């Protein structure tokens, strides 16, 4: 008589969701900041406050669109019948497009206007959605290129647009700090919402209801395009292409602080990309059965919690220089990835490490945005941001080829390189803090 061994599917404890939710609410409502209260004030708002509210609404809408493809992309490729090798090829095509084309979209955004670049983001999503509705199975490569470029635009264009408008209206820097963490918070919350929306639209029947997700994405893109074109007017860009190139070259070459901030941003981009490619294979290693769809909200909830910690460094008792708390955050992120790379762990320990990693990500992203405001001129901000991602995209593409086609390295090696990059980012922040103190002392002596 044979023995039947029942395998148990691992799921996170429901108390984790409650803990993350209560922690986020507690962190926000205990924060002694005036700007958050202004967002929900019912008195007649100022012009910048109206812009803040509209941009946050638009950013939430854009995040839901991005999240629909991020959450459901792999299942959609499997629905089309793609093998693992073909999925790897689509990843390589996407990162190659981001490297060869996307690296220069930031410069184009600075020249033509950030509003137009955001409209391009929605147009790319709308184009892919319409093609899928009409054709059913459009070119996977074409869709991958369009969505990869859209994701790259999403990573810099909305932030740059917000900062430029903030500068035009002459607002205080405190409002920028709050907008940075609110954008990180709302992005993660929208990604969770997009997972709920995708599950609701599919309703367990992929073959019958897959077009409903494309319809929803197309509707959201049309709404966003109408909202942007009717709600905002953007004046013509005053800088000529020749002058822009001179300014970009001057600051990118001569200002070492921009180099340090850009390198740190690239290291974060590489580590996050490597994480989302490898986290599922790492957890299900050795045939372990795990409910990945229930872990996904835990990671994003941790990122939301980390974003609510950021304003405490400005308004609460944890008053630290941005560079100082970034050093600690990068070291913690590097240590967590090092443990994952070199030590076999139980699923519960892995999920805990992944949540800690994303909590630090929630702190790091608005902090780096604040540093860019301090050191990068607004007229070249988009170009610097997109160029800073070029080494990261090249590294991801390089490791994908070595891992997928050459079988030269393992997943743990890629994770280890991501950890080394984060440690180097901590070194960059240490140097930036050291130079900042020296500059302050020299000015004080004068």
TrEMBL record:
Q: Name one Pfam family in it.
A: MFS_5
Which keywords has UniProt assigned to this entry?
Membrane, Sugar transport, Transmembrane, Transmembrane helix, Transport
Q: Where are the transmembrane segments?
A: 15-34, 55-75, 87-105, 117-134, 140-158, 179-202, 214-232, 258-279, 294-314, 326-344, 350-371, 383-402, 408-432
The record's InterPro entries line, in alphabetical order, gives:
MFS_trans_sf (IPR036259), MOT2/MFSD5 (IPR008509)
Look up keyword Transmembrane helix and say if it applies.
yes
Keyword Calcium part of the UniProt annotation: no
Q: Name one GO cellular component term.
A: membrane
Q: Which GO terms describe its molecular function?
A: molybdate ion transmembrane transporter activity
Alphabetized SUPFAM superfamilies for the sequence: MFS general substrate transporter (SSF103473)
Family of this protein? Belongs to the major facilitator superfamily. Phosphate:H(+) symporter (TC 2.A.1.9) family.
Name under which the protein is recorded: Putative sugar transporter
Species whose genome carries this gene = Handroanthus impetiginosus
